[in-house]
User: What shape does this take?
Amino acid sequence: MTLPFNLTFLQILLSDVFSTTPLPGEDILPFGFLLRMANFVELFPLLIIIIGVLSLAAPSIRRSYVRRKYGLTDDVQIATLLEISAFIRNYLPDVSISNNPLRGDQVAFIYPVGFRKAGMGLMGGVW
Assistant: This one.
């Protein structure tokens, strides 16, 4: 399925859910509004696909979200982080390294910075 088809299908589903004209059979059944609610089941997978495509198309939005969520900064003030950063830059010179030494629930993770560029987040659990 292509993205234009998914967007057209999304428009049809949303018009069925939020239209003011009654759907066929909605007047006959005592709980006719449940026919509209049944469209939400088909709506969720479609929205997930569209959000996934948009997140791939705009990695800078995901980068700013990840940096804000984990409190990552580019300032390196701890000697251990300087050594780890130097070791990583020896093998991966184009990776951007950010850190949050106060957060100890994770060690390290990779996240997208841009198209074909990665960033590494180092947390307090590294040392």
Q: What stands out?
A: Helices lie at 3-18, 33-37, 39-57, 59-70, 79-91.
